Fold this protein.
Amino acid sequence: MSDWNTRTKLVHGGTRRSQYNEVSEAIFLTQGFVYDSAEQAEARFIETGPDEFIYARYGNPTVAMFEERIALLEGAEDAFATASGMAAVSGALTSMLKAGDHVVSAKALFGSCLYILEEILTRYGVDVTFVDGTNLDEWRAAVRDDTKAVFFESMSNPTLEVIDVAAVAEIAHAKGAKVVVDNVFSTPVFSGAIAQGADAVIYSATKHIDGQGRCLGGVILGSQEFIRKTVEPYMKHTGGSMSPFNAWVLLKGLETIDLRVRAQAASALAIAEALEGDAGLERVIYPGLKGHAQNALVQTQLGGKGGTVLSLDLKGGQKAAFKFLNALEIAVISNNLGDAKSIATHPATTTHQRLPEDQKVALGITPGLVRFSVGLEDADDLIKDIKQAVAASKA
């Protein structure tokens, strides 16, 4: 399978067939498994072999198919599927940290990720230092000899800063620290974070991997040793594992993710280019635009692809942003992303609402900022819809 090209891996990777030789992957919707004898049960609790299962919280054939397929796509040795993206973030970090450990994190993060670092980890004695993720000098100054891990979003939410994975990994590894990357906005289609030096990669599978707004899921990817000796014991005992049904839905999502994400990114670039210079906008933020501060990094790290999300900063602040959102006819107002449907979000009052005002300002989350996740609709239709909504925001 490792020799297959991406789209072949996404259709066939990890497939297990029952005695019925079904075409579509089977849903093993069971929480437990039957043993042939008491001796077999004892042996399995001592050590599970390939394709041996104990309990759905520990593993399941459908979940295993999803884990193997996403690992093939990411180029990782192994993966552990979780109940949600935030279960993956908290599981990856908490499983590897203890009181007294030091973590360095980029400060531009999704609100729930900030909560994990600012509130939960510090509550249990973990020391956390925040830096400007795009400033390598700040990483060098913050990473210490006792730093256990660094954490960042490879493309930040919602201001779309792109962090140099390879450069930060080099800084961290020089001090013996592990590199943990939330890769949602970069997507598993465009990013090669493992090859660039990440020790662990996290996805909210709720986003592009499902891609059709159906279910929650997450995944932690890394070396087999990290996944099976660090992540798995923590996750199976704390209960954050993925359900077999959700794993089946996400397997179906992986079959088409390459096609979907490439189409969405092409539309996102077309929209961003069409909106640049619009009189109703303070700025258009899209990493694929030549004027973006990290566009050169996008060329090397993401193969020139700027992702599926852009952010629009409307003149007139929150009032204009709300007028814009309410005027949209195709895109829906919601707080997900990576969906087949275009979705618009006002981060300052939703996903990042809990942040103090000065922190929002420091992160560039202005009252007029709208995050726009580009779907699979016709790009020309979306451009017309956005332009009429921008015009309405000025009324």
Observations:
- The chain has a mean pLDDT of 96.
- The first strand starts at residue 78 and ends at 82.
